[in-house]
Amino acid sequence: MSFMNILAHVVTGLGALVLFASGLGVFRMPDVFNKMHAGTKATTLGSVLFLFGLGLFEPSWLPKLFLIILFIVLTNPVSSHALARAAHNEPSEKPDNLIIDDLEESKGGDQ
Amino acid sequence: MTKNLPSIVSSSIVLFGIWLSLTLTFDLQEIILGVVVSVLTAVAVKGALTGNLLRLLSPEKFLAAVGYVMFFLVQMVKANIDIFFRIFRPVIPIRPGIVRANITLKSERARAIVANSITLTPGTITIDIIDDEIFIHWVFLPSGDVHSETQAMVDSFAGRLEKIFE
Description:
The structure holds two protein chains of two kinds.
Chain A: H1 3-28, H2 32-57, H3 62-89, H4 102-110
Chain B: H1 5-23, H2 28-44, H3 59-87, E1 97-102, H4 108-119, E2 124-130, E3 133-138, H5 146-165
Antiparallel strand pairs in B: 1-3, 2-3
Helix pairs in contact in B: 1-2, 3-5, 4-5
């Protein structure tokens, strides 16, 4: 087993661990916005680590994997913004544990 | 057309880079086809894919861009360590709240980058941008004055980007 191979196993395993934490976070967090924290940040780094680990197994795949990583990093936060905005516009989804909510105030001012 | 030329050139270069990493061949025929397709696509979208990247060629802007990427990667790893140790606690420590901050950047592209970066950094996600105000959800509100803390966090990204985009 070469050094590269061991490193690839470590990085891929780390990515899987982060993805597991993300899934657990979505399950455990109490409300929609906090679920989003786990679902966005951890899936991004998890996927990046996992794909990079795959690239270490097969170095000839690295350019394509790098493209996938780039698209994930660029698009994952955008989907999270869309979901968060939609959740905030939907009164039945609004959590009641917010200590401060400036967005609600500024919306109230507009209408 | 001439006004868009730098944007079209930078879009063509980026598209050609994508073409090369997907085909992974240096066959002359493939490369010629790649150049033609990249330039046609870049002209069709008037370079809107990337905007003008050629101004990054000045050394200080290039260094600022590299510095921003480094800063962002460190923040992203910190965010994941933070969320990791939060999730495995028996009782998840949260103190959520949505806080407004001002964003002075004018360029739409720069604003999108700031919003995306904030989403991927510790304890914060961007919910909305209305006019010059950005609304940020904290998983654990900072102690002290939340508004000035949030403003400082936004400025740490926006200030770095200002050097690149202005």
